[in-house]
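Researcher: Re-running this chain for the archive, since the previous output was lost when a drive failed. Same request as before.
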Amino acid sequence: MNIPKITSIAIALKVYYSHTEIGNKEIAELFGKLSAATVSKLKKMVMTEMIKQSVMSYRMYKINTTLAYIVWGIDVDDLEKRHKKLIELGLDE
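Model: Regenerated structure tokens:
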């Protein structure tokens, strides 16, 4: 499955650092408007990995944020460097 593009670096960092688990609302914030089927596929990818790694979810219909970013290929360290550079250049979103 192709992973959608994040809406912005700042939002991706905000979602990552604000939530230990994310659901449909946060996924929509992260990627923008998606079909219910796409959101379901994204969550299923993460849930499969959560089962493999024995990571528990504390709320129904939520997925582990850290693992979600790893599964979706979102590199938080890279986003932080880019965000810092945008701030230095005065181009922060």
